[in-house]
Design goal:
single chain; three-stranded antiparallel sheet; 16 helices; zinc ion binding; 9 strands; nucleic acid binding
Amino acid sequence: MSSDDLHALSGPELLDRTRALVAERNRIDAALARTVRVADSRRAFAADGQKTAASWLRGHGRLSEPAASKIVRAGRALEQLPAVEELHAAGALTADQVDVIAQFTGPKWAPRIAAQGGTVADVAEVLARFAADRPHEDLTRLAHQVQQRLDQDGPEPDPTEERFLTIVRHADGSVTFRGHLDALGAEKVQAALEAHRQADRPAGDDRTVSQQQGDALVQWADNTLAAGTAPLLRRNKPQVAVKVSSEDLADEATGRGAADLGFGGVVSAATARQVACDAELRRYLIGPDGELLDLGRSQRLATPALRRAVEHRDERCVFAGCDAPTSWCDVHHVVHWLFGGQTSLENSALLCERHHTQVHHGFTIERDTAGRWHTYRPDGTEILTLRPTPIDGEQELAHAG
């Protein structure tokens, strides 16, 4: 329906349509989880050079890492929970509710439920029927109560099983964090943050505590990178990478979006100049009138200078559908060294470890004259990440309302 059509509806009609759309979304989520599960069991994603269903969903479906993982988790859990899958497919359960119930398919819960004379499927069915007409918060509270009763006298949990940190990057390069730490792990992090927070309390400071803690986290990273104590990445010390043209760096009038960061963020020229005040500047002349880095046949391995140039150009793994950062990647000879390929920028490409292996086992990559990378399967067909695929054998989903 168009916006004008929606404005023509009454309030109750709009709410009825909203309910119908939520139910339809639940049904679609159920169908997607089931389809991904079957595709994963048949290793269909390997045809596009991807190791997992989640990596395919990120690269080809353009989903975030948390969203892709959630779909895969749901598909695997629903296979064990027929009552939950039935209600989800009927539109009565949301994907978030399924995610909460799916926790009980973890390996530690089955024996504890069996000791009480039940099964995981039984507990999940009770939770699903409870969730079908209750707020999401009520389900999470009940699920936690069930887990507490099942684990009253159990062994001390491994704290690493509870920890997670998700970083979601937004269009402007900023990020949002979501995570969970066990009590001891949280104490360590809070102690370190508090030390940095208290060390930077200027007179008249009117920042909120949350703002102070955000600044403390960045200062913690600053100190770690400056000390050089962080683990090496591909034999290099981790560092902040900023790519900016010499014109933008010198032109103080240049506004936002002038410089690219190593992990995909975009900042203004002013921010790039701030970084350049205390940085190692490297000049790259790449183009028709610039210097092309070329080591010919005299050296097989890429030098640090050549690697930096390849990273500057490619920015991430060039295999179709892969978003692995430069720190995960090798410099690959497009034409293999053994077959006469030169160690040069033109003959180099960034590939993560998995896809570097793939191109040595049948897959191929090529760079066209416009500078775009293309990936081909062993049978010669190209892997396309933006190609729409019709749903064969299924009736087109009707528009709710």
